[in-house]
Amino acid sequence: MMATAGRAILFSGATVAVGLCTLFYFTATHMPSMGMGAFLAVLGALIYSLTLLPALLSLVGHGIDRLPVPLPWGQDEGRFWEKFSTRVMKNPVGWLIPSMGFLLLLGVPFLHVELTAGGLDTLPPDLESRQAYEILEEEFPAFTASVVPLVIVFDEGQDPFSKALSTEVALVCEGVETVEGVISVSHPLCNPSLFDTEIEEWPEDLRIEWLTTVSNSLAMINVPIEYPSGSDEAEQLIKDVREFTSSSQEEVLVGSWTSYEVDMKEHLKERIPVALAFVLLVTMVLVWFQVHSVLVPIKAVFMNILSISASFGLIVVVFQDGLLAGPLNFTPQPLDLMVPPLVFGIAFGLSMDYEVLMLSRIHESWLETEDNTRAVSEGLQASGRLITGAAAIMIAVFSGFIFADVMIIKSIGFALAVAVFVDPTIVRAVVVPSAMRLMGRANWWSPDFSGSRKNKDESVAKQ
C-alpha cells in the first residue's frame, strides 16, 4: 500500500510545497515569511503521513472500521462517479470545449485588473476607524493632504549649513516644482540666500523647519501634491520626480506610500516571470517522475493555470468591479498587490495536489490494463470522492476569510475558495479526463521509457 499511496502522498506534498516556494521570490514583501510558515506546515504533514500515520494504522488494523458512520449518499456517490466518467469518456470533445470555454470566459476580466498597495478603502465603510478618518479628511484637509517626502543624503563630513549645498539642493527644488501635480516645494535648503546670515537671524518658522527636518547626515523636504495617494496620477508624479532627482549631484530619495506602491509593482513585475518559470518547470519535472510521461506534465500545468485564471477573473468582477460589494460590505477598489502572488502560490499547490492524486490512480490503472480510456475512467472513479471531500474541507476553511473586515483577507479567501471549487468540479471532473481521453496512448509516451522502467512501474502497481 505504501508503495502506491506513499508515492502519491510524496509527490502530492512535493507539488504543494513547490507552489508555496514561489512566495520566496518576492523578497521585498512579507510573502517569504508566509511561504516559509506554509512550507513547514506541508513538510510536517508530509513527514507525518509517511511515517507516523502508517505506523498507527498498522497498530489499529481492522479496528479502524469498528465504528463506521453510514452516509446515505455513500454508495450513490460511487455510482455517480462511475456514470459520470462513462459519460465524459463517450463524448470528450463535447465536454472539453464548453468547459474550457467557460473557464477562459471566467478569466477574461483579469485582463483589466488594477493593483494597489491598499489604503483607507480596504476597511469596511461602517468601521469606526475609517469613518473617523473620513471626517478628519473632510474637516481638516490640510492635515491629511498627500505629501511626498524628499530625503537628501549628505556626503560624509559634509556641512548641512552650507550655501554651496543649498545651491545644489535649490536646483532640485526648482526642478521638482515644475513636475505636474506638485503644489510647492519649500524648505530652507531651497533658498541659498538664507545662508548669507546666521540661523539665529532667520524667521522663526524657518528655524523650526530647519531644526525638525535637518540632521548631520540628511534632510527631509515635504512636498505637497494635488493627487490622492495611490492614484494613477500620483504614481506618474513619483516617476517624474524620480527621473528628475536621479540627475542631481546629491543623493535624493523619494518616499511616500505611493512610492512604495510604485516600487512594489516594479518588484512584482521583475519577480513574477522568474517565479512562474520556477514553479512550472519544477512541477513538470515532478509530474514526469511520477508518471514518466511527456504530455501529461504539460497538460497538468496548463489545466492548473486555467483553473487559477478563472478565480483571478472572478475576484476582479467581485472586488474591483463591485459585484458583491453590498452583501460582503466593502468598497469596490483595485486588488491589493499581494493578492495575485499569494493566491497563485497557494492555489497552484492545492490544484496540483488534486492533480497528482488523480494521476496516480490513472497511472496505476494504465500500468495494469494499458487501456487509456479505462485507466482515465477508473482514475476518475477512484479519486473523485477523495478530491471532492478534500476540496469541500478547504472551501469551508477559505470561505471563513470572506467575512473578515480587512479587504486583502476577504479577497484572498474568496479567490482560494473559488479556485478550489472550480478545480474538482470542472477541471478534474471534466477537462482533465476528456483531454486525456482525446490524447489516448500519447499520454504515456516518453523517450525515457524502457523495459526496465516499465517493469519497475508494473511491480510497484502490483504492490
Describe what this molecule looks like in 3D:
With 463 residues, the chain is mostly helical. The chain has helices at residues 2-21, 31-50, 52-60, 74-90, 92-107, 128-139, 163-177, 204-213, 232-245, 257-291, 295-320, 325-328, 339-369, 372-401, 407-439, 451-462; strands spanning 115-116, 147-153, 218-224, 251-254, 335-336. It folds into two domains: 2-60 and 75-123 and 261-462, Up-down Bundle (Multidrug efflux transporter AcrB transmembrane fold), CATH 1.20.1640; 147-255, Alpha-Beta Plaits (2-Layer Sandwich), CATH 3.30.70. The chain contains 16 helices and five strands. The strands form two sheets. A three-stranded antiparallel β-sheet has the order 3-2-4. Strands 1-5 form a two-stranded parallel sheet.
CATH class of the largest domain: Mainly Alpha
Instruction: Report mean pLDDT, rounded to a whole number.
Output: 87
Distance between the termini: 7 Å
Biggest sheet layout:
3 strands, antiparallel
Shape: elongated
Read across the widest sheet, the strand sequence of neighbours is: 3-2-4
If you consult CATH, what is the topology of the largest domain? Multidrug efflux transporter AcrB transmembrane fold
How does the helix and strand content classify structurally?
Answer: mainly alpha
Question: What is the CATH-assigned architecture of the largest domain?
Answer: Up-down Bundle
Q: By CATH's scheme, which homologous superfamily of the largest domain applies?
A: Multidrug efflux transporter AcrB transmembrane domain
Number of strands: 5
Query: DSSP strand (E) fraction?
Result: under 5%
Q: In angstroms, what is the radius of gyration?
A: 30 Å
| Assembly classification | single chain
Q: Which H/E pattern describes the elements?
A: HHHHHEHEHHEHEHHHEHHHH
